[in-house]
Amino acid sequence: MPGGVDPLDFRDRTRRLGNFSFNPCGQFLNLNEKVLSALCFILWMRIFVTTSDYYNPLLAGFCHLFNRNWPGVQPVTILCYERPDAALPGNFSVHSLGAAADFGGEVQEWSPGRRGRKFQEPYPNPRWTDSLRPFFESLPEEPFILLQVDYYLHLPVELGKIEILWKYLAREDVVKIDLARDRAFFPHESYAREEGMEIVVSSQTAPYRTSLLPAIWKRDYFLKLLKPGRSPWTFETIGMTEILNDGKSILGVDQPVFGPVPYLNVYYSGKVNWQQLGQLDPETLQDMTRRGMIGVGWNGWVERQ
User: Are 216 and 144 in contact (CB under 8 A)?
Assistant: First the structure.
């Protein structure tokens, strides 16, 4: 069922959530309240993943690990330029933002002419914000989770913690909730403690409050930051100075090792980041390599040293 959720796959994978029976019409029976709540949360939550023509070869591996480590069959929308060649799982849909050349991508990412500050050249995706704005303007004012395609989820996602954190979005001042650990590395204060989870709020002068690490965003706040003519890097670096002392609350968690969405950042400056990719368990890495999800088909591929 391209672009949707295959009902048989949905039946099999949601068994992770608890014991229940399933009839041929797709109705769930004997669900306890907690399982039903989790199931509804999965189906209601919106997740968007940004990619680009250069990064499209990572999609097969991203989808494989996402479905392995995100509970249930979570619908996901890929935001791309050129549509990927890879066949994606049924819970992934694809939305093209237009041609990369329409947003400054006439020079390929990470090639001479567009390799970024270290090469005294413009950043890749120089009008990334312009490409995203029409899509997010078309959405209802509801929160969403934003991920990047080179964030490979390598351990089970803590969905229960995400559900708890999501409730804080009911507070008007809370505009973003980071699902990585990064807010705990910068100036912050304790905000709440719930079911053993330490929730922190980023100080008003803390750097990288605009970080594009895994996070829940309120749509209007994200749109406010989509200023014209910015790459993902300048979205973060310029944007973070513009929101200093804006009075908005950006939450995160302080916990050991990983946040509720554990991931490996498998690319760095347009090349494979083996320091991160090498943390995949060897069996998974070998299997994904054998199946062509990881390997020389990636742009910027370098062999492990």
Answer: yes
Rounded alpha-carbon distances, angstroms, from residue 296 to 109, 114, 192? 17, 22, 46
Distance between first and last Cα of the chain: 41
Residue 118: domain span:
7-154+222-241+264-290
Would 160 be classed as within a structural domain?
no
**CA atoms of 96 and 4, how far apart (whole Å):** 16
The conformation of residue 15, written as its DSSP 8-state character, comes to G
Q: How confident is the model at residue 76 (pLDDT cuts 50, 70, 90)?
A: very high
Domains of the chain: total:
1
Q: Please give the full DSSP string across 172-205, using - where no structure is assigned.
A: TTEEEEESSSGGGGSSEEEEEEETTEEEEEE-TT
Alpha-carbon gap, residue 199 to 184, rounded angstroms: 9
- Domain presence at residue 296: no
What value does the CA radius of gyration of the chain take, rounded to a whole number of Å? Answer: 19
Question: What sign does the CA torsion over 105, 133, 66, 259 have?
Answer: positive
Half-sphere exposure of 305 (CA within 13 A, CB side): 4
Q: Does the predicted model carry a pTM greater than 0.90?
A: no
Of 165, 246, 232, nearest to 203 by C-alpha is 246
Contacts of the segment 193-197: beta carbons below 8 A, 24+ positions apart: 194/164, 195/160, 195/161, 195/164, 197/161, 197/164, 197/253, 197/255
In a domain, 208, yes or no: no
> What's the pLDDT score for residue 257?
87
In a domain, 257, yes or no: no
